[in-house]
Specification:
- There is one protein chain.
- The chain is an alpha+beta fold and 318 residues long.
- The chain folds into 2 domains: 86 residues, no CATH class; 205 residues, OB fold (Dihydrolipoamide Acetyltransferase, E2P), CATH 2.40.50.140.
- The protein is 29% helix and 25% strand.
- A hairpin with a 2-residue loop joins strand 6 and strand 7.
- It binds zinc ion.
- Zinc ion binds next to strand 2 and helix 2.
């Protein structure tokens, strides 16, 4: 069907993975869920494999794209580009919105927030704290003008138990501080459109799509293993493995909000939603290891309320 004078060139694997991910493996024209998709060359030159010339469509729409009709009815290059851009934007926004606790259940909440890394990333992506709350907390000297916490109380010295940064403030201030940061995590997600790790859970796709510095989201069962306890805190080793792919993180307990986070939600083997920034992706004895730093971890999410447009490749199992 394509121009026979131009030789077909294979689309590079990396570009193909990216196109399919960006379209949530769904036809951008009819958007029929689960219809098998193909990649169409918009200019009908099968050797022109630049990203702008490629669009993910289903078999029906692909045939339609190669059928000549009166201009008003045909899938012209211009219309295809329009469909592609609109669908990619919708996938990005719907995917990010699905990651927010408010899109899941009432009890879903970020109960670990990395107070060190988050402000740095917010600056890099021009994400702002809620102005009113920041002003209020800065006036009370709970945070500085950049939202960095300023401890108000001495760290309680209680044998070998865990303490968090929230215990360094009066109760209502610590709650407001948590509100400030929960809102900031949501804003960072909406601004950066994190990669849905479950949608690219194959070695090839992870290797081609994830880069150091990529921001990702992953909701599934994780194992949480406590490390050495020092000065009221410990680095908790967090990991999940499926299909010879393993995600590994270290989450310090000082960033956890409340006793259920410390002793229940992020202990043992639990279901969790984790926002992370990738450090490295390496092959170790046949296992593809994804090492990342957690930015936020949430509890109270459930899979059946998770309305991501992506097709997820792993089970939810712990
Ligand atoms: Zn279609």
């Amino acid at each position: 069907m394509e121009n026979p004078s131009k030789a077909r060139k294979k689309i590079p694997k990396q570009l193909e993975s990216l196109l399919l991910y960006n379209a949530a493996k769904t036809c951008c024209v009819c958007r029929v869920p689960r219809a098998p998709v193909e990649i169409h060359h918009i200019d009908e030159n099968p050797a022109n494999n630049i990203e702008d010339n490629l669009v993910v469509i289903c078999k029906n729409c692909h045939e339609e794209a190669h059928t000549k009709r009166p201009l008003s009815k045909s899938l012209t290059a211009g219309r295809l580009i329009d469909f592609k851009i609109r669908w990619q934007d919708e996938v990005k926004n719907r995917s990010a919105n699905a990651m927010l606790p408010s899109s899941n259940l009432d009890q879903a909440m970020w109960t670990y927030i990395n107070h060190q890394r988050l402000p740095v990333l917010m600056k890099a992506f021009d994400v702002k704290f809620d102005a009113g709350l920041l002003y209020f907390l800065a006036k009370r000297k709970v945070v500085d003008r950049n939202g960095i916490p300023i401890f108000q109380l001495e760290c309680k010295d209680r044998d070998n138990s865990l303490t968090t940064i929230y215990e360094r403030f009066e109760w209502d201030d610590s709650q407001r501080l948590h509100d400030l940061y929960m809102d900031a995590v949501d804003k960072l997600i909406q601004k950066t459109h994190p990669i849905e790790l479950g949608a690219i859970w194959t070695k090839t796709e992870i290797k081609t799509i994830l880069k150091p510095g990529s921001i990702c989201f992953c909701m599934r069962g994780f194992h949480f293993r406590g490390g050495e306890r020092k000065n009221g805190e410990e680095d908790r080793f967090v990991y999940a493995r499926a299909k010879n792919i393993e995600v590994q993180l270290l989450a310090n307990t000082r960033h956890m909000y409340g006793n259920s986070a410390l002793y229940t939600n992020f202990a043992g083997s639990r279901f969790a939603a984790i926002l992370m920034i990738i450090k490295e992706v390496v092959n170790e004895e046949g296992v593809l290891v994804v090492r990342a730093t957690p930015l936020a971890m949430g509890a109270g999410f459930i899979p059946s309320e998770y309305e991501t447009p992506h097709k997820l490749r792993y089970g939810w199992a712990v």
